[in-house]
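Batch job 17 of 40 flagged for manual review because the log was empty.
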Amino acid sequence: MLDDGWDIFSGGGLRAEIAQHVHKNSGDWSTEHLFERLGAFDAADKRFGLFVEGLASSDVLPEEATQRRYVELVNGCLRPYGIELRESGSDGGYPVFSLAATRPAANRSPKNLIFASAVKPDLRFQNAVDNDVEIVTNAEKVLVYDRPIGNEGLRWRELQRWWGETNGIAIEQEAKQTLYRRLLESLPDRSPPQRLLFESYHRGFRSAVPDLPALLPEVWLHWDPKTVKERGRDALFRFRMDFLLLLPHGVRVVLEVDGKQHYADERGVADVKRYAQMASADRDLKLSGYEVFRFGGSELQGDSGAVLVKSFFEALFKRHRVAVPV
């Protein structure tokens, strides 16, 4: 139910206009014009949230089926922003819907984006108070994106600008080509499927890529100065992510390409412990707010693999309302 602040229908005035142009003559006002007259576009977040919840109430929609249809339609617009309407109770036999977050609040802007390195980086805190890191040796083998990442995520355009300015490359085409080669070279030679996924993403979208999320390879998630052997049973097993995309509104998408080493031992025999470690690491990522998608290495072969990659990203971008320029 709408609170008193939204009770703009008392008396005449706007209420009479809405009755005339929305109810009696449904084609007079567009939805956008109605919301503009209601002040919805200029309302504070909390006030607009109350408005959305109020429209789902039985006072406005006196049929449960209509309520649920409204919630279904509205949630398609809300979920990309990390919220949705959920059934939270009942009132007079009708469901009550309230806004709720769909992602953990932990999806803050990344602080240390360390990527494009197949070897463990040798780093130290340059300033522990500010969380500034420094690559001590082999700096050419790792990339560290050190610029703020806003609500729009990290697009290829920003990544390329950072690369060009960091390396003194003023020509845009040269910056694009050298960055692409640098990222491609970071992929392990033993995993052709990873290379196919990376190449198919850029070939599939071609000129649209600059305005799409950057596909970051070999991203370091956990960094521990000790080895797994030294750390023992408390070691973290998910050191790197095969690929990471930082989408708008804090959405983090992890892509993993699974070869037999993910579920079998060195002899090629199924290894239940190895698989369990992988499943546990996936759960931790999801609980931390990441979306995780896995590809079987056998899927990413030849032309059919390229088609699969393109279709996957089209569906992913549609789900999160990432516009693909034509």
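Reviewer: the log was empty due to a logging misconfiguration, but the result itself is present. Residues 1-10 have pLDDT under 50 and may be disordered. Unflagging and moving on to job 18.
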